[in-house]
Design brief:
heterodimer, A: 114 residues, mainly beta, B: 114 residues, seven-stranded mixed β-sheet, four-stranded antiparallel β-sheet, 50% strand
Chain lengths: 114, 114
Amino acid sequence: AQSVTQLGSHVSVSEGALVLLRCNYSSSVPPYLFWYVQYPNQGLQLLLKYTSAATLVKGINGFEAEFKKSETSFHLTKPSAHMSDAAEYFCAVRPMDSSYKLIFGSGTRLLVRP
Amino acid sequence: EAQVTQNPRYLITVTGKKLTVTCSQNMNHEYMSWYRQDPGLGLRQIYYSMNVEVTDKGDVPEGYKVSRKEKRNFPLILESPSPNQTSLYFCASSLSYTSTDTQYFGPGTRLTVL
């Protein structure tokens, strides 16, 4: 079965530092891939999605992610962290053969230190 | 404003007392879904609906019921809640169940079953 692994339940960075949140998927056929962000006491908001067009995907708030088929990865990055980026981030995949299903990773909580 | 609304936002109840969590969207979306979020597990799909009168089980459907009598509403019913259903619940909708469609999430309902 398709699965998503997010390495690191918590990631802490200093304000202004690079943000790197890791996501790996298990599938021989590349699925569609999504990153969502959840701010405290709010629902999930789409950051970006990969739909088999460009492998480097730009999202909102300066985030981007690169799809690497050889590594089955879709890591999320931001060059310079801001205090307002503190939130929980979820990677999700939608298998090609199950378009109705969205499978989420366990989430990574990003902490931004002043 | 385009949105997904859920009610109530917070609910404390006792074992065995039937409850309903409502979900409504004003975007004329065909696809709707319910998830539960538990620490360390990410979001898991409970039920989904591809259109009016069309519903199906997700990954964790036991103990839940849904109905889709109108396009905009997708209530989640717990006929006999148990403590292991204490969780944070999210409703989501998308234009269709096409793989690339973005799912829009409600603000969440935090349920505690004593």
